[in-house]
Amino acid sequence: MTGTSEADQAPPAPWPGTDQVPSAPTPSPGALPPTPSPGADQAPAMPTPCSGPSVWKGPELVHPEQWQLHLSGTRLAEIDSALRETRRRDLTLLRLTAADFPLPGLAADLARLSGVLEHGRGFAVVRGLPVDRLGETAASTVFWGIGRHLGHPVPQNADGVVLGHVRDTGRSLGDPAARGYQTREALPFHTDPTDLLALMPLRTSRTGGRVSLVSSAAVHNAVLDLRPDLAGRLYRSYHFDRRDEHAPGEPPCTTAPLVTRHGGLAGALSMRYNRCYLESAQRFPQVPRLEPADRELFDLVDSVAASPEYRLDLDLRAGDLLLINTHRVMHARSAFEDPRPPEHARHLLRLWLAFVQEAGSQDAHPWVTLRDVIRPRATAAPRATNSRRFPA
């Protein structure tokens, strides 16, 4: 099974804990999103460099305690207690809310990390979840329960999977219907189409598979500094291939700028970038051709992001929980080799989470329309959390 799908028999409800599916414009069957006229969404003047804690370089992060949380025995006891409660109540995993998974002390720690994610460096790592002791089922519930304290799970593919599994399935990115998490190939720096990405290794690979992070704002500033003639193209709209994750009649691509700023050209930055998807969108004849200057821009973004001067390399261990604000931080993965049988090979759990606005808040995130809402084609019955693998 490649993932856990949310379900009701009818009607589908791909957003756990809500009554409605988010609405989206209905395009003409198979039509591509409209393309702005040339230069229509290009920055009218040279953008202001970003500043603040979201601008960082990997070698400068010498105090990991600012973005790491090591789980104490007290916090692990809270997690065990929440697991026992879900087992006693026989709660269905994908309907499990934060209230159903109470973490009295850890919830406050997670709220602090949320501040780091939204207003600080844009990433955090929780260390010390005992996944070997818990087993996959209980570890999945812990992962989901912690995630529900941080955001709202959204579908990761057109099958409605909201609890994803990252592992090598033998596929290749050369297949336009394949996605990076299904391969063991190197994945250059990119963003996922969600607000918050959560990854937790159950097992690591024999070799390779290192995760790297980079500040999108720092990359943006480097483009302004190194190639100001290309800077305006960061603000143009481009077509992103949906890699066949769309329902019949929906467009095969989405359109969005690489960079948007909240509050004008000097505001907070949100970046969307995936060169693989930008280039594979060229397979559709209706998509405007990338210009040489576009490819120059992509080359520069790639080279800056991958530079040791900018990136931060992380060697994740089983039981680490990596949290990434995808508007602020891009991530990459090195190729990996894992000749072991599937039950012992590299395996990560993944959540895509939407930021949740406070009740009555009028300050909606300015980038919500730039991230895809993948609307499932079908649903399947969710699994219950009750399992013999739960701790007694």
Task: Please characterize this protein's 3D structure.
This protein has 392 residues and is an alpha+beta fold. Helix content is 22%, strand content 20%. It contains 7 helices and 18 strands. It has helices at residues 73-89, 106-119, 131-148, 216-226, 228-231, 275-280, 292-306, and strands at residues 3-5, 68-70, 123-127, 152-153, 161-166, 187-190, 196-203, 207-208, 211-215, 237-241, 253-257, 259-262, 268-271, 312-314, 321-325, 329-333, 336-337, 347-354. Strands 1, 2, 3, 4, 5, 7, 15 and 18 form an 8-stranded mixed sheet that branches. Strands 6-16-9-14 form a 4-stranded antiparallel sheet. It has a two-stranded antiparallel ribbon with strand order 8-17. Helix 4 crosses helix 7. The longest helix is centred in the middle third of the chain and has 18 residues, at 131-148. The two termini are 26 Å apart. The model is unreliable at 6-29, 35-44, 359-371 and 378-392 (pLDDT under 50).
Give descriptors for this structure:
globular; 392 residues; alpha+beta; disordered C terminus; 22% helix; eight-stranded mixed beta sheet
The low-confidence parts are 6-29, 35-44, 359-371, 378-392
Task: Please state roughly what percent of the residues sit in beta strands, choosing from under 5%, 5-15%, 15-25%, 25-35%, 35-45% or over 45%.
Answer: 15-25%
Mean pLDDT: 80
Number of helices: 7
Class from helix and strand fractions = alpha+beta
